[in-house]
Amino acid sequence: MGKVVAGVAIVCAAAACAAAAVTVSYRMRVRSQRHHARSFLLEFQEACATPVARLRQIVDAMAVEMHAGLVSEGGSRLKMLPSYVDQLPEGDEKGLYYAVDLGGTNFRALRVQLGGKESRVIKQEYEEVAIPPELMIGTSEELFDFIAKELSSFVAREGDGFQPSAGQSRDIGFTFSFPVQQTALNSGTLLNWTKGFKVVDAIGQDVVAALQRCIQKRGPEMRITALVNDAVGALAGGRYWNEDVMIAVILGTGTNAAYVERAQAISKCGSTFPKSGEMVINMEWGNFWSSHLPRTPVDETLDNETMNPGEQGFEKMISGMYLGDVVRRVLLKMAQEAALFGPNVPRKMLEAFSLGTPDISKIHDDESSDLKMVGNVLRDVYGIQNTSLAVRKIVYEVCDTVAERGARLAAAGIVGILKKIGRDGTHSKDVGSPVHPECGKTVVAMDGGLYERYSKFRAYMQAAAAELLGDASKDVVIELSKDGSGVGAALLAASIAKNRRK
Ligand code: BGC
């Protein structure tokens, strides 16, 4: 009997030892995997670093590329497209104007009743619909007919408080947020698509003529008087309220900037200067490139797998369409190489764009001590249950790294433009150009969901701009001009109509 008891005790002890050994080895494995994930994170953080010295190189490169893009067609990756907008709205525009806005995930139709200097915007209404994904890669006829159809039904619901001018067709400003070579204010050919659109037969077409044809078929009496990039629209919208607005930046699905340039500086346009001596330039800065940009192997694979590899390098490090996917790719590597989320890689994590920028903004906003929201996002998006605090911290830091890099690069871009127009504080006050006579305040109008809704991104961007500008930052205001781009196109249509009547 005694022997049996002793035998059982020995077996139990052995089992306990084995269990303890398994636990220890499991813990060691987890610890070593976490260690692996951490060292991967450190490596990634180093590759993404944007110390101020590097940002200054990017500021300089931006200013240099701007010059090059203005001198000759194809002189730079920055297209620096003349917008043919040589006069921005002044506030005295009156009447009913429409705008249609195509450029991201949603299409918008908008109307605005303007009452002149005193009453400004009397009434405004808009409608937004998601663009069916198949139209983003379909035919030009289908895409423009969809816009015309939505616009027609919106016009049909024009109610009280909107008064069209008697006997006149309604004017539309067409915000088309892709690179377009304009030939006049109301015409221009599409150069290439960005942001996941690929309607191949539209490339090289006059987008105004294409939309106008579809509108005519659908019936409403309307004419497109202005073709406007969203960055140009945001500049017009910003200027309507504040005459110090000189630059507009879009940080949304895509990214871009527009600014007021001296007509004489646009040498590629020859010597035909607009009367005002100024011209708004659509920079198409999403395609900016410089060897100083902190590009990592993760960015390279992302780029290779997009619809436009080799294009929009700056945009792919900055804008809302891509930030979430950069984070996803880093997490995926950590899941595959360091089993960050357990022995299995979450299947959905293999899907491109499965983590959106709104998700990383939620993660980034989590200030709780146990990072509960980080855990919730991982559970809701990828079905990962019960993450440890250590894992959540790693995920949080990946988001922080990607967003901080994007925000600081955007700030460097803005300071690059300020440098080009002599407003970064490194020039003497009396630059003496017709555009910048006495250099008072310079306002940068910001538009786009990324800037509007991602508070940590916004804060990083503002801080980096202040760091780069030093003392000059007191003369530069970077402010949100919500929805400026849509209304801006209507305002430009109004300002053209006003000048037509003069
Ligand atoms: C387009 C620009 C646009 C920007 C923001 C970019 O992808 O090329 O034309 O202004 O997105 O919408």
What does this structure look like?
The chain is α/β, with parallel strands linked by helices and 502 residues long. The chain has 15 helices and 13 strands. It has helices at residues 2-48, 52-71, 116-119, 140-156, 207-218, 230-241, 297-304, 315-318, 320-338, 357-364, 372-382, 389-420, 449-453, 455-469, 484-501; strands at 81-82, 94-102, 106-115, 121-130, 170-176, 180-184, 187-190, 222-228, 245-251, 255-262, 278-282, 442-447, 476-480. The strands form three sheets. It has a six-stranded mixed beta sheet with strand order 1-11-10-9-12-13, with helices on both faces. Strands 4-3-2-5-8 form a five-stranded mixed beta sheet. It has a two-stranded antiparallel ribbon with strand order 6-7. The longest helix has 47 residues, at 2-48. It is globular. Residues 430-437 have low confidence and may be disordered. Bound molecules: beta-D-glucopyranose. Beta-D-glucopyranose binds at residues 103, 177-179, 194-195, 229-231, 250, 252, 254-256, 284, 286, 315. Residues 247-494 form the Hexokinase C-terminal domain.
